[in-house]
């Protein structure tokens, strides 16, 4: 069983200002939070989770948020060294921190690197001042470029820029301009998300005017072509990377690997020695979490749900799905999904060979219909 890699996600729940499109679990900093106390609680939270992962080690770590770069390098160092004492971190583990362009400088980046961070993900979103204002961002294009260039000078294992497209009043040229600016910095990884309007956000209650479907399609086509010409391979809907620089942490989620989740609202998925898969959900609000109530929910994922969960993750990736991984990661026999797979193949959503299944272009376009086959 422990051929299944286990990652660790750590959630940092604070931001300087809430962006109007964001439905992540992030809270505006009113008075400076007790960052030190939060780190101490993360460590205790992991100590309690250790019962779910006997003798395993950590394959990758992702410190996300919120704005993790509000935490000092000293605190990140304390966190990582304590994690390693509780559950050993593999020597070659990818360790990422998310950083907002306005909360970083060379000292902080250097400190993170010394603490063991080997990948930085920078939330740029756009390189155009008017777009950043509309998105409620507190950085300007210059700060975004500086943060990207700083990350580059560190010679990290990798770094990523997050960009969004389909922004209010965005033309095709605007979107291509953003990509060209990012390509000029040459990050090994680029996440290129289409802006979605989420219900519980300011944009959800007062939706801005977004590009229509034809324009969105054109932005995607031209942007995809530009990224491909510059050596970025798309390996998931929104994820592009230079050869060998795919995000190992996200790959583990999408390959239905295991993960611990510590911090406010973090989710975990952990396969137990008897083959049961448990899901953990941590207390969402910092107040309850800081009072020591870490685990909010913990339950077994039912066998009936597993095929859908497995394929929902797996088919986000454009690589083939090895058939043996279905059995290895769900503990279900292949014949339990034979009928559903035959339907998906008949509908031209999938093709198969002896070893693997591969999603077709038609399947990518109708991903929801493909997944419904497993419900
Ligand atoms: C966890 S979030 C935030 C990281 C960091 N705090 C920041 O904002 O730069 C990771 C990324 O998700 C993307 N994102 C957040 N909300 C989105 C939305 N409504 N639609 C599309 N992408 C979104 C943004 O690109 C963001 O950088
Ligand atoms: S900075 Fe990032 S996590 Fe915070 S509110 Fe904005 S998008 Fe959300």
Give an overview of the whole structure:
- With 375 residues, the protein is α/β, with parallel strands linked by helices.
- It folds into 2 domains: 6-252, Aldolase class I (TIM Barrel); 321-375, no CATH class.
- The protein has 15 helices and 17 strands.
- The protein has helices at 35-49, 73-86, 106-115, 129-134, 141-153, 172-185, 202-205, 213-229, 248-254, 286-290, 306-314, 323-330, 338-346, 361-365, 367-372, and strands at 6-12, 14-15, 27-28, 58-65, 89-99, 119-125, 158-165, 189-194, 233-236, 239-241, 258-263, 267-271, 277-282, 295-300, 321-322, 350-352, 356-359.
- The strands form 4 sheets. It has a 9-stranded mixed beta sheet with strand order 9-10-8-7-6-5-4-1-11, sandwiched between helices. A 3-stranded antiparallel beta sheet has the order 12-13-14, with no helix packed on it.
- Helix 1 (35-49) runs parallel beside helix 2 (73-86), helix 2 runs parallel beside helix 3 (106-115) and helix 6 (172-185) packs parallel to helix 8 (213-229).
- The model has no long low-confidence stretch (mean pLDDT 96).
- Bound molecules: S-adenosylmethionine and iron/sulfur cluster.
- Iron/sulfur cluster is lined by residues 15, 18-19, 22, 24, 26, 65-67, 100, 123.
CATH topology of the largest domain: TIM Barrel
What is the helix tally? 15
Q: What is the highest CATH level, the class of the largest domain?
A: Alpha Beta
Number of discrete domains: 2
Q: Please list the strands of the largest sheet in the order they lie side by side.
A: 9-10-8-7-6-5-4-1-11
Binned, the helix content reads 25-40%
Structural class: alpha/beta
Query: How would you state the average pLDDT, rounded?
Result: 96
Number of strands: 17
CATH architecture of the largest domain: Alpha-Beta Barrel
Question: How far do the termini sit from each other?
Answer: 26 Å
- The low-confidence runs, each spanning 5 or more residues with pLDDT under 50, are none
The oligomeric state is single chain
Which kinds of small molecule does this entry bind, naming each only once? S-adenosylmethionine, iron/sulfur cluster
Biggest β-sheet description: 9 strands, mixed
Output the radius of gyration.
21 Å
Strand content: 15-25%
CATH superfamily of the largest domain: Aldolase class I
């Amino acid at each position: 069983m422990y051929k299944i890699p286990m990652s660790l996600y750590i959630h940092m729940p604070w931001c300087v200002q809430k962006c109007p499109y964001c439905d992540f679990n992030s809270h505006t900093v009113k008075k400076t939070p007790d960052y030190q106390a939060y780190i101490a609680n993360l460590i205790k939270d992991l100590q309690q989770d250790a019962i779910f992962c006997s003798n395993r080690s950590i394959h990758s770590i992702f410190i996300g948020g919120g704005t993790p770069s509000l935490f000092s390098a000293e605190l990140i160092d304390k966190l990582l060294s304590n994690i390693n004492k509780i559950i050993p971190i593999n020597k070659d583990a990818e360790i990422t921190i998310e950083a907002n362009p306005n909360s970083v400088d060379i000292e902080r980046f250097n400190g993170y690197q010394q603490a063991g961070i080997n990948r930085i993900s920078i939330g740029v979103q756009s390189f155009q001042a008017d777009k950043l204002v509309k998105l409620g961002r507190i950085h300007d294009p210059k700060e975004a470029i500086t943060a990207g260039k700083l990350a580059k000078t560190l010679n990290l294992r990798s770094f990523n820029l997050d960009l969004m497209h389909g922004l209010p009043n965005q033309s095709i040229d605007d979107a291509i301009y953003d990509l060209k600016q990012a390509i000029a910095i040459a990050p090994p990884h680029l996440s290129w998300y289409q802006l979605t309007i989420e219900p519980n956000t300011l944009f959800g209650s007062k939706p801005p005017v977004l590009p229509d479907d034809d324009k969105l399609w054109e932005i995607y086509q031209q942007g995809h072509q530009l990224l491909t010409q510059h050596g970025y391979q798309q390996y998931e809907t929104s994820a592009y990377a230079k050869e060998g620089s795919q995000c190992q942490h996200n790959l583990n989620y999408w390959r239905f690997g295991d993960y611990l989740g510590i911090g406010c609202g973090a989710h975990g998925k952990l396969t137990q020695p008897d083959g049961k898969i448990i899901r953990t959900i941590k207390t969402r609000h910092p107040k309850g979490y800081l009072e020591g109530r870490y685990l909010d929910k913990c339950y077994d994922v039912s066998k009936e749900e597993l095929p859908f969960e497995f394929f929902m993750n797996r088919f986000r990736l454009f690589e083939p799905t090895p058939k043996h991984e279905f059995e290895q990661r769900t503990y279900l026999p292949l014949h339990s999904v034979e009928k559903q797979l035959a339907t998906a193949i008949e509908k031209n959503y999938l093709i198969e060979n002896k070893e693997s299944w591969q999603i077709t272009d038609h399947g990518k376009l109708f991903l929801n219909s493909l997944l419904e086959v497993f419900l």
